[in-house]
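Hypothesis: this fold can be encoded by more than one sequence.
Test: take the structure tokens below, design a sequence, compare later.
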């Protein structure tokens, strides 16, 4: 079980696209189809559990012959385990490729990976924590990363402090063909594959564009040959850690620069409204005063950490700040988003004062 969990709770890949594979297959497996632009396409498409392979030659309507780059799209985890819960590093990727080769051998389809290259991959980390406990910090990270334009399962709200953002169940953001996601992996497996894993798993993942994937290796003077990528798999992992460590750092900077100000604006609005209401009540006894300011903030806004409420109290209450903090504590004692940032920082092997560790 410990070995299984080690493969679950690690940084690894979930999806790869490999090109330039040498494929040999019997003539009777070839199929010819008409393309949308009026040309002809001849070759094979072969599917299996966790993979699909393409091999085509195209003849355009102007009789230009275009060789199609042989492509394998596969999920090593589905191939090896039947689902995509676990993450794969180089060893499991290699094992999955061998298994695909053996499966296709039985159909007299021969694969040779010796000249193949990796076009891109999807890399992720599984965290052994409930999504609901982590989504406060995930929300912040995606909000900051996307400048308020991240998408979520229950719609969007461009104001980070908005209470509506508490309803979110997953996050995703696309930038320059890169896709970033965070979601409840336990729930996804239960709903889509009817698998109850009896573990709490939150997944954070990057689907890299071919350009960004290539840059990881180009910056280290390496090509994208399959064996080069597998032998230097740690470069993908380091890149992933650095990216999310930077997002965490920017998220904390955003909080320190903006969150207390956002709360202070709403705090002052409420206090001013209440002050006016009390004056009017002297004239009209039917006017009702609202609840206390801390209940109002709790009911209507998303507060990242009680620290920021206390910062507002320190600025507005010179004499009664201890009493005010005790009142605020009743509503915000469990708002500990900064601890969640530290929790994630440990997974990405970094602190905010030091660079990412590359070992």
């Amino acid at each position: 079980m410990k070995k299984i969990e080690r493969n679950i709770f690690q940084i690894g890949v979930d999806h790869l696209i490999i090109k330039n594979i040498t494929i040999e297959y019997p003539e009777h497996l070839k199929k010819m189809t008409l393309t949308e632009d009026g040309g002809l396409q001849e070759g094979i498409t072969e599917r299996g559990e966790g993979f699909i392979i393409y091999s085509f030659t195209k003849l355009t309507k102007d009789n230009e012959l275009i060789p199609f780059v042989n492509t394998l799209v596969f999920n090593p985890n589905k191939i090896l385990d039947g689902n995509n819960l676990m993450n794969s590093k180089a060893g499991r990727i290699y094992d999955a490729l061998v298994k695909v080769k053996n499966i296709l051998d039985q159909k007299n389809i021969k694969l040779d990976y010796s000249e193949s290259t990796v076009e891109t991959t999807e890399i992720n980390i599984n965290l052994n924590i409930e999504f609901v406990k982590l989504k406060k910090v995930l929300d912040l990270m995606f909000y900051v990363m996307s400048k308020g334009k991240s998408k979520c399962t229950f719609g969007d709200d461009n104001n980070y402090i908005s209470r509506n953002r508490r309803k979110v169940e997953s996050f995703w953001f696309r930038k320059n063909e890169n896709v970033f996601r965070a979601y409840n992996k336990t729930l996804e497996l239960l709903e889509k594959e009817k698998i109850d894993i009896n573990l709490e798993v939150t997944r954070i993942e990057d689907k890299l564009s071919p350009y960004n994937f290539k840059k990881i290796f180009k910056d280290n003077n390496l090509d994208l040959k399959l064996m080069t990528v597998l032998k230097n798999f740690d470069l993908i992992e380091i890149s992933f850690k650095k990216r999310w460590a930077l997002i965490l750092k920017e998220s904390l900077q955003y909080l320190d620069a903006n969150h207390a100000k956002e709360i202070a604006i709403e705090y002052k609005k409420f206090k001013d409204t209440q002050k006016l209401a009390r004056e009017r009540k002297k004239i009209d006894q039917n006017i009702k005063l609202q609840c206390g300011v801390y209940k109002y903030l709790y009911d209507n806004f998303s507060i990242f950490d009680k620290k920021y409420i206390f910062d507002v109290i320190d600025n507005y209450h010179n004499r009664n700040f201890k009493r005010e903090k005790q009142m605020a504590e009743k509503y915000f004692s469990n708002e500990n988003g900064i601890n969640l940032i530290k929790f994630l920082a440990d997974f990405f092997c970094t602190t905010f004062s030091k660079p990412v560790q590359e070992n």
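The two ends are 26 Å apart (CA to CA). Residues 1-121 form one domain.
Hypothesis status: open.
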